[in-house]
Structures are given as structure tokens and as C-alpha cells.
């Protein structure tokens, strides 16, 4: 049996974590032979709820789960981590300006970045889920200068899975028959779900998504807006934000970091844009098509970009630049 790895989940008493922790603890993410120490961090008022989550994890009687550590202290939460999944953030409240939301989250992710810097392993893999995820991820990374920027990523896999599923349903195939959709940019309503490079396996033959769907106006219209606005649609229906699907996407993202992507396939994740070949401003966390091997990611380079895509990629980059500049002004205060 391997040595246990330490995995932190923040916002651990919340609903995404409730859908996530069982999958991690039973081996769906880091492997069926990888023992785990789960560290659960939340704010002090949530500690009684967290105790209930700990009891349930114990009651699952999972052989890989070696220890569960509930805490509200960063020095406990971030110590010697192998992986950090930062789910907790300040949610947007009614009447709240986006700028106020950014300010509150800059404070949270500055603190957590500093805690990673001080207590975690330098090899830690950090996934930021809490919104605004791209900018929160950038703030955390800047607050942990001795941890490589490449170790930080943000979640756009939920958008990627949504796009994959929409194409699959439209083509009446299962979701595993669709590959290489791309989410470009911000995890917000400006994101660009792009299927120009996607392939669909129809009756054993791989064809382009545009040929398989055979409805360009849908792919350039309702498909894009459906994916962009899906989170809001779930909130409207459930009166709660996406949890089951968000947890599944987190599992997909972390499992791909740990075990790599399939040959000839790429997935979407928000990563540091430095040195990218797509003309995206450098100092951003931006979602690209990504390959992963040996726990290191590379951007899929050289994909042809048409004018339609270029405009949408630039629009979401512009939003990220504005978010970043606002966030950095708070960070320096």
C-alpha cells in the first residue's frame, strides 16, 4: 500500500463538497490503491455541520480513507498538502456588485495562497473552484510565489462536460463518443464553448462535430448560450447552484492531473496563460485545450482559429483582464 496523500477540500461543509468527498474517499480520483488523509476546512460557524460530514465519512467505512481532519485553522488545513481543492468562496448575494464580490474573494484567496506558501508541499496541485474561479486562482498563485504557477488551475471542466453533453444529446450518442470540445477563457457567461475541433463517433466513424450535428446556426447560437448560462438555469430550477455536476467535474479534473489525458484528446482547464500561442494576454488564468502527462499540462498548440472564434476568445480575455486589474488593485491595498 502506498503512503497516504493529504488532500484538502475547503468549503467542506457546503453542498459541492457533500457531493465530492465520497468520490475522493473511495478512490475515484487519486486511484483505487491510494490511501487518503482528507482535510476538511471551513469557517467557524460551519464546524458543527462539518462534524456531521465527518461522521458520515466514517460511516461509509471506506478502506482507503485513513484519517479525516476537520478544521477552521489554515495552519492545520494547509499543512503538507499533496492536493488542495479550494471550493469555498464568498457567494454573490442579492444586490451585490461584482466588484464587491471580487474584493471579498481577493481577501480569501490571498489568505489561502499565503497558507499554501507557508505550509503546503511545493509540489501541491491546487484546483480553484470558488468563483470568480479564474481570478481567485490567479490571486492564490500570486500569493504563493514559491509554488510553480503551473501547479495552479481553475475549474472549467464543468463547462466542458456541459458542452460535451449538449453535442452528444444533439447527435443521439453517449457522451463518451464526443471528444475535444474546448472551453476558452473565463468561467463566466463570456466563456466560449468551441466545437470547431471536436469529433463525434457516429456508428463507429469519427466525424467533425459540425458534420455530426449538421446545424451550424444551433452550434453558433443556442448551443453556446446554453452552455454559458447553464449554471444560472440550474439555480433557477433547483434554487441551489450546481453541486452533483460540479463535484463530478472536480473529480474528472483532478483525476486527469493525476493520471493524464488520453492520447489524442484534450480537456479544458483554466491555467496560467504565460507563453501561450493564441495571443491571449500572459498574466491571466485562462481556459485552454490541455493535454496532461506525468502530472504536467501543456496547451494544445496550433489549432486554426477562425474570425468567429477569435472574437469570442478575445471578449472573454478582455473580461479576465478587467477582473485581474480590479483584483490586483485590492491585492496591493
TrEMBL record:
It catalyses: (S)-2-hydroxyglutarate + NAD(+) = 2-oxoglutarate + NADH + H(+); (S)-malate + NAD(+) = oxaloacetate + NADH + H(+). Residues 156-330 form the Lactate/malate dehydrogenase C-terminal domain. Pfam families: Ldh_1_C, Ldh_1_N. It is an enzyme of class 1 (oxidoreductase). This is Malate dehydrogenase. PANTHER family: MALATE DEHYDROGENASE. It comes from Osmerus mordax. NAD(+) binds at residues 42, 105, 129-131. Its EC number is 1.1.1.37. Substrate binds at residues 92, 98, 131, 162. GO terms for molecular function: L-malate dehydrogenase (NAD+) activity.
Amino acid at each position: 500500500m502506498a503512503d497516504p496523500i493529504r488532500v484538502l477540500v475547503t468549503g467542506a461543509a457546503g453542498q459541492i463538497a457533500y457531493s465530492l468527498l465520497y468520490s475522493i474517499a473511495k478512490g475515484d480520483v487519486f486511484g483505487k490503491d491510494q490511501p487518503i488523509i482528507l482535510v476538511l476546512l471551513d469557517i467557524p460557524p460551519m464546524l458543527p455541520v462539518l462534524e456531521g460530514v465527518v461522521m458520515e465519512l466514517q460511516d461509509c467505512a471506506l478502506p482507503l480513507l485513513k484519517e479525516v481532519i476537520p478544521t477552521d485553522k489554515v495552519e492545520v488545513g494547509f499543512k503538507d498538502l499533496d492536493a488542495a481543492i479550494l471550493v469555498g468562496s464568498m457567494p454573490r448575494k442579492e444586490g451585490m456588485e461584482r466588484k464587491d464580490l471580487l474584493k471579498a474573494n481577493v481577501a480569501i484567496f490571498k489568505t489561502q495562497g499565503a497558507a499554501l506558501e507557508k505550509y503546503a508541499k511545493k509540489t501541491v496541485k491546487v484546483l480553484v473552484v470558488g468563483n470568480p474561479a479564474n481570478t481567485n486562482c490567479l490571486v492564490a498563485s500570486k500569493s504563493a510565489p514559491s509554488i510553480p504557477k503551473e501547479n495552479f488551475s481553475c475549474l472549467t471542466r464543468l463547462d466542458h462536460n456541459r458542452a460535451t453533453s449538449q453535442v452528444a444529446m444533439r447527435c443521439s450518442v453517449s457522451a463518451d463518443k464526443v471528444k475535444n470540445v474546448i472551453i476558452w477563457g473565463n468561467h463566466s457567461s463570456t466563456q466560449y464553448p468551441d466545437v470547431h475541433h471536436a469529433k463525434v463517433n457516429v456508428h463507429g466513424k469519427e466525424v467533425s462535430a459540425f458534420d455530426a450535428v449538421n446545424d451550424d446556426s444551433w452550434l453558433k447560437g443556442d448551443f453556446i448560450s446554453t452552455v454559458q448560462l447553464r449554471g444560472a438555469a440550474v439555480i433557477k430550477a433547483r434554487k441551489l447552484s450546481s453541486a452533483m455536476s460540479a463535484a463530478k467535474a472536480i473529480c474528472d479534473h483532478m483525476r486527469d492531473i493525476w493520471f493524464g489525458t488520453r492520447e489524442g484528446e484534450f480537456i479544458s482547464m483554466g491555467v496560467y496563460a504565460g507563453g501561450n500561442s493564441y495571443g491571449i494576454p500572459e498574466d491571466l488564468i485562462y481556459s485552454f485545450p490541455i493535454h496532461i502527462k506525468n502530472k504536467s499540462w501543456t496547451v494544445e498548440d496550433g489549432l486554426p482559429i477562425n474570425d468567429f472564434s477569435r472574437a469570442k476568445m478575445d471578449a472573454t480575455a478582455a473580461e479576465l483582464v478587467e477582473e485581474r486589474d480590479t483584483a490586483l488593485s485590492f491585492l496591493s491595498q
